[in-house]
Structures are given as C-alpha cells and as structure tokens.
Design goal:
By secondary structure, the chain is of the alpha/beta class. The chain folds into two domains: 147 residues, Spore Coat Polysaccharide Biosynthesis Protein SpsA, Chain A; 156 residues, UDP N-Acetylglucosamine Acyltransferase, domain 1, CATH 2.160.10. The chain contains nine helices and 38 strands. The longest helix is centred in the last third of the chain and has 18 residues. The protein is globular and about 60 Å long. The mean pLDDT is 93.
C-alpha cells in the first residue's frame, strides 16, 4: 500500500513555524509525521500535497516523492493521511480497512482509497472531494491528536516522547565513566557513537531519555526525561529539562525546558528557553531568554499572524521561524510569535510579542528596514558554516514568503507608529 500525506485547510494556523515547511515536517516527540510513516510503511511509492509555495523546495528535498501530483496512476490502495496528525500508536497496514475512516474530534485523520476513488481527487477541490468519499465510510476513532496551533506540539511533546520510546524499543546503553543515571537504566537509549564527558547526570525518573548518533554531551550537563537529543547535536554545560526535543545538528547550552528545537538551532550560550518551538537555522545570542509564564498566571494569548489567539494554557513560550537571529540579552515576552528571517537587536526591555517575518527590532522598536537581500546573504553565510547550502529553490521560497507576509509587516509597523503618536 502506498501512502499520501496532505496538508488540509488548517495548515496556516501553524504559522510561523510552518511557513517554510509542510505541517507534517513539524516535530512532536522524536520526529515528524513523515518520518514515522516511512518507518511504518517502508515503500518507495509515497506522495505529498503541500501548500503551493512549498512544492518546489519539498520536491527538491524529497526527490522520491510525488509532490502535488494528483494525476499519478496507482493500481493499489492509497492510504491518505492528514498532515496534522500526531498518532499515539503505530498504524499497521492490517488495521486499515477500505470500509473505515479514522477521525479525531470530527476531523479526518486517515482514510484508504481504492484506485478508482483516488482518481476522483481533483486539485481544485482536493479536500472536499476527499471528505465526500470519507462520508461513505464507517467512522472509527484514530489515536493521538490533530494539531491545531503551534503550542499543541509543545504541550504534547512529553507524552509523545514516551510513546515513541515504547514504539521504537530500547537497547542497553554503553558504559560511560562518571555518568550518573538516576532512575531505571532501561529507560535510557544511548547509541554507541555518542560521546559523553565525565560528570553528566541523566535523570529518567519522570521519563525516558534517548540520545542519537554522533552526539556530544559536555561535562556538567543534566538531562531530564522524557527527552530526545538528535543526531550530531552538541550540548554544552546544559540544563535540559523534561519534555524537550533537541533535533539534529543543534548546539545547545544554558537552560531548556519543555521545548522543541527543530534542527540546526544554535543556542550555545546561557539563557532560558521554555515551552517554545524553534525552527532551523535560528541563532539565539548569549543570554537570549523566553518568558513562558505571566505574573498573574492567566492564560496566554499568542499573536499568530498578528491576531491574538487564546492558547487556553498559562505556560506558553515563543514560536520562532526559520533563520531568525537574536543579539545578546534578547528578552522575549510570554507567548511571542517571531516570523522567518527576523533580526532582533535588544533594547534593554521585553521585545514585541509579535515580530512579523522579515522584520527587525532595533532598541526595542519594530522596523522593516533590514533588506531582504541582506537577510538571504546572512542565511547563506550561516548555513555555509555548517557545510550546508541555501539552494536556489529555497531562496525563491523565502522571496515568495517575503511577498506573502508584506501586509502583516505593514500592519504591525503601522500599529506601532499609531501607539507612539497616541503617547505624544
């Protein structure tokens, strides 16, 4: 059976962390939905439907996939999977029936289509034609959740880490001198290729800890489970709290708690990161700190695309888009939304909670005078330092995102200007 993962009409609600990637590439637990599907259904025949501006870069990153190709010919059933799904248990091919459709809270999570049914899907009305077919099926309850907003990933990360640990199994960890494991050693998974210096504490009393290949943990680091540290990452004298995922090739120091660092994130220095999601190629300067709790303990509203959304939670940090850079001593307010390719220079006070994509902050004031070409050149330099390259397709994507987010930028700056005039 081939599988087809798609973005539905609610994908934009996961801005800013899904601006530059499909929602099924967002991480919750050890990995994203697409990687889980590749483990569960190891086939070369898979396809994806993404928002139009993501098609070129996604096809470039995944040449084996059919991206936004709804005319592909298939002679076997196709498992259609909502990209916002974070499953709580493995979906086996034997459980998938052509008579059923999996739902969560009234929203379609998965459905298997016959070749004839698949041929009925059309690009112009893809989702409605899929839902029309689903209405002919018997409804079954799918496991897990469908993420609605960015904080759903963070709030479910700890539980998902535990589920992933159970799903993928464990192995005996190699011996490391002067490493103290608190809790059951069976709740640790450490690859033989990992380097752990003396005087590291791994605490599994509240959840498992997994450490992937080629990770380096420096002395005087404490890691609390549930937690996962991805391939090639380095932790420098860090306090890594529970419910944290550090993705591949990150550099992390200071204090991190209940957060997701997607990958290629640089947080080398001291500073607190809590209840936050940080996208790739973000550099958090020394002492950059996020607030994740209001002093009155009330629910946090997050300005997604400039619109305050009540999260329903009292602990919410920051959601930081790709290639954002913060200078020393940047202080983010509770429930901040920071877009892609922003440049943050602190002003000795809390930063604006809404920093649209391609904006800059100078001395605490929001502005739009950081040239796009300079932002792209900065991204190229940062990636080259890690032997990576900003491809031409990726550059076109960011130029497209710059045009798409212009109204949000202008509205935010106009509001700041109005407030300044009102104070005069």
């Amino acid at each position: 059976m081939q599988w087809f993962v798609y973005e539905d009409q609610f994908a934009d609600q996961l801005s800013p962390i899904a601006l530059a990637r499909p929602v099924f590439e967002l991480i919750c637990g050890r990995e994203c939905l697409r990687r889980r599907l590749q483990r569960w259904f190891p086939t070369k025949n898979w396809a994806a439907r993404v928002r139009p501006w993501l098609a070129e870069t996604y096809a470039e990153a995944h040449p084996a996939a059919a991206v936004n190709n709804h005319l592909m010919v298939t002679d076997s059933p196709t498992l259609m999977i909502n990209g916002r799904w974070v499953p709580a248990s493995r979906l086996n091919a034997g459980e998938v029936s052509l008579d059923h459709a999996g739902y969560i809270d009234g929203h379609l999570a998965w459905i298997a289509l016959t070749p004839d049914e698949f041929s009925l899907l059309c690009d112009a009305d893809f989702e409605q034609s899929l839902l029309s077919i689903a209405r002919s099926r018997r409804v079954v309850e799918a496991s897990g959740i469908l993420i609605q907003r960015p904080w759903d990933l963070v709030n479910n990360n700890g539980r998902q880490l535990e589920l992933d640990f159970e799903d993928e199994g464990v192995s005996q960890q190699p011996e490391f001198a002067h490493v103290q494991i608190l809790g059951d050693p069976a709740d640790t998974y450490i690859t033989a290729e990992t380097t752990i210096d003396p005087y590291v504490v791994i605490d599994t009393r509240e959840g498992p800890v997994s450490i992937d290949r080629n990770v380096h943990i420096q002395s005087f680091t404490r890691i609390e489970g549930p937690c996962h540290i991805g391939q090639g990452s380095k932790v420098f004298r860090g306090l890594i709290g529970k419910c944290t995922t550090i993705g591949a090739h990150c550099r992390v120091g200071g204090e991190v708690e209940e957060s997701i660092l997607h990958g290629h994130v640089n947080k080398y220095h001291e500073g607190f990161l809590g209840h936050s999601y940080v996208c790739p190629w973000v550099n958090l300067g020394a002492i950059t700190t996020t607030s994740d709790l209001k002093s009155d303990y009330s629910n946090v509203k997050v300005p997604l695309q400039g619109v305050p959304i009540d999260s329903g939670h009292y602990k919410v940090g920051s959601f930081i888009g790709d290639h954002t850079k913060t200078a020393i001593d940047s202080m983010f307010n509770t429930g901040s939304s920071i877009g892609v390719m922003t440049l943050v220079l602190p002003g000795g006070r809390l930063l604006p909670r809404h920093i649209p994509s391609f904006c800059n902050v100078s001395f605490g004031e929001l502005a739009i005078d950081w040239p796009l070409d300079q932002a792209i050149e900065t991204a190229k330099i940062a990636m080259s330092r890690r032997d990576c390259k900003l491809t031409e397709a990726a550059e076109r994507l960011f130029r497209k995102l710059h045009a798409m987010t212009e109204d949000e930028r202008l509205a935010a700056v106009a509001m700041v200007t109005k407030r300044k005039l009102d104070r005069q």
